[in-house]
Amino acid sequence: MRTALLALTTAAFVTVLTEALPAGVLPGLSAGLGVGEPAAGQAVTVYALGTALTAVPLSAATATWRRKRLLLTGVAGFAVANTVTALSADYALTMMARFLAGVAAGVVWALLAGYARRLVPDGPGKAIAIVMAGIPLALSLGIPAGTFLGGLFGWRWAFGAMSVLAAVLLAWIAARVPDQPGRAGGRLAVSRTLSVPGVLPVLAVTLVFVLGHTVLYTYVAAFLGHAGLGGAVDVVLLVFGVASMAGIWVVGAVIDRALRALTVLSTILVALAAALLAVSAGSPALVYAAVALWGLGWGGVPTLLQTAAGHAGGEAADHAQAMLVTLWNAAMAAGGVAGGVLLDAAGPAVFPWTLLVLLLPVFAVVLGARRHGFPATS
C-alpha cells in the first residue's frame, strides 16, 4: 500500500504545482502570450475558478464511477491541460487549458482523502497525512525547481515537464493503485450532505481559516518588504516550507487519536504567528520565528480538515470533501482579492492582524463542534 499512497502523494504534488507554477514563470508566460503580467497572472485565478465551479457537480455526477477510473481521468486532464499550455501561443486557449486543469484538480482533490482512508482503514489519518505531504513538497521544492527550469530553458519547458510527470503518474496509478468502487447509492443532494451533523462546522472552519491564511500568504512579499526583509523572501518561504513538513509529520503521527487537539493546536500556533508578525517590525529574528510557527501550524491543516470532513460526512464523505475543495478554492480566490483591497487601503502591516481576527471564529467553531465535526474522540 505504501507505493499506492506515494502515487496519491504525487497526484497532490502535481495538482498544487500545476496551480502555482504560473507564478514562478510569470514574466516568461506574459511575454510568450503577448499580454501584461496582471493578465498572465489570471492563469492562477482561472484554475481556481475551474475547481470551485465544478468540484461539487462533478462529484455528484461521478458518484457511481469506479474510483481508479475517475482518478486516471483527473490526472489525464492535467496531462492534456499542461501540454496545451506548453504549446499554446494564444491567450484565450491558454486560459481554457488552465480552466480544464482546475476542473481536473476538483476531481482529484475530491478523491484523494477518501482513497487514502480506504487504502489504510486502520490508520486513515496517517494515510491522508502522507498524501497531503504533496502540498508543501510542491510549494517548497516543486515551485523553485519549476522556476529554475523555466529560467534555464523557458517557461514552456516547465509546463512540458509537468505533462511528462502526469504521464508517468498515469502509468504508476494504472499499475500500482488498487481500484475502489463508487458510491452504491448514487448521487447525494447538496442539502442532504450539509444536513449531516458535523459537516457544516468543518466547512465553515475551512472557508475562514483558508481565507485568513491566503490573505497573508499571497502578499507575504509585500509584508516582508514592510518588515525590512524584502530581499529574503525565498529564504523566509523556505523556512515556512520546512516547518510545514514538520507540521505534517507531527499531524500524521497522532491524528488518528487526537484530531480535535491537533486542530486546536494548529489554530493557536497560526494565531501566535500572526500576533508575532503584527509586532515584529524591525526584528528579523522575530519574523523568522513567527514564520516557523506559521508553517508548523498550517502544514497539517489540509490533512486535519480533509480527515474531519471524511469522518463527519460518513457515507457522504466524498461529497463533503468535494464541498471542502470548492470552499477552499473560493477562499483562496477571495483571499487574493481581499488582500489586494487591504493592501491599497491600509498597507501590508494589516495582513497579520486580519489573519488574527479571522482565527477567532475558527477557534470558536472548533471548540463548539465537540460532538460532531471536531469530536473529543476521533
UniProtKB/TrEMBL annotation:
InterPro entries: MFS (IPR011701), MFS_dom (IPR020846), MFS_Efflux_Transporters (IPR050189), MFS_trans_sf (IPR036259). GO terms for cellular component: plasma membrane. It comes from Amycolatopsis iheyensis. Residues 4-372 form the Major facilitator superfamily (MFS) profile domain. It is a multi-pass membrane protein. Keywords: Cell membrane, Membrane, Transmembrane, Transmembrane helix. This is MFS transporter. The chain crosses the membrane at residues 44-63, 70-89, 95-115, 127-149, 155-175, 196-220, 232-255, 262-279, 285-305, 325-343, 349-369. It comes from the Bacteria. PANTHER family: CHLORAMPHENICOL EFFLUX PUMP RV0191 (PTHR43124:SF3), PURINE EFFLUX PUMP PBUE (PTHR43124).
